[in-house]
Design a protein that fits this description.
It contains five helices and seven strands. The chain has a three-stranded antiparallel sheet. A two-stranded antiparallel sheet has the order 4-5. With 175 residues, it is α+β, with helices and mostly antiparallel strands. It has one domain (6-170).
Length: 175
């Protein structure tokens, strides 16, 4: 991913007001991000613990415009309680201990989102999917399943899943 400026990031959001985009906090490590290893920028808002944000690079989502595409998400206040010992991220398909995957919910863009329509996805809690598929970060899961796909194929799958999620956010109403 090409490095983005703060101004580009704030201008990219499609499912929140300009005021909300202006108030969000960038990642604490913004100056030192490993842009070359990122397929998208994802972070939990340090100033709002129940908010997260994704920014996809320019041109990643067809018909989304020329610039980057930002999506703001909510983290449920009440964590799910389950006997499940592990979970799978739906973006990068990395297996985690159950606390390593979180349901994130995005209001749809436009009038549909203002009417309360949302789209959700279970994703790595730290939003470091790009680093997991490249082997730069390891999940805290004791039993790991090795994939037969190479790194390039896992990156392609991550991008496909991410674009599908972003496309659902952009839909005017539920399919």
């Amino acid at each position: 991913m090409e490095p983005l400026s703060e101004k580009q990031i704030r201008a990219s959001f499609v499912n929140c007001s300009k005021g909300d985009a202006a108030r969000l906090r960038l990642p604490a490590d913004f100056a030192g991000l490993p842009w070359e290893d990122l397929d998208f920028l994802g972070w939990r808002d340090p100033g709002a613990p129940f908010r997260a944000h994704l920014v996809l690079p320019s041109g990643a989502v067809p018909d989304a415009g020329a610039g980057p595409l930002g999506i703001t998400l909510r983290v449920p206040e009440k964590a799910r309680t389950s006997a499940v010992k592990s979970s799978l991220c739906r973006i990068c398909l990395t297996g985690h201990a159950s606390s390593g995957v979180t349901l994130l919910v995005a209001p749809r863009a436009g009038a549909s989102g203002r009417d309360g329509n949302t789209v959700g996805v279970y994703v790595c809690s730290d939003l470091a999917c790009s680093l997991y598929v490249r082997g730069r970060r390891q999940p805290a899961l004791r039993t790991r399943h090795e994939e037969s796909l190479g790194v390039g194929e896992r990156i392609d799958r991550l991008r496909t899943n991410l674009v599908a999620f972003a496309g659902n956010v952009l839909l005017p109403s539920a399919p």
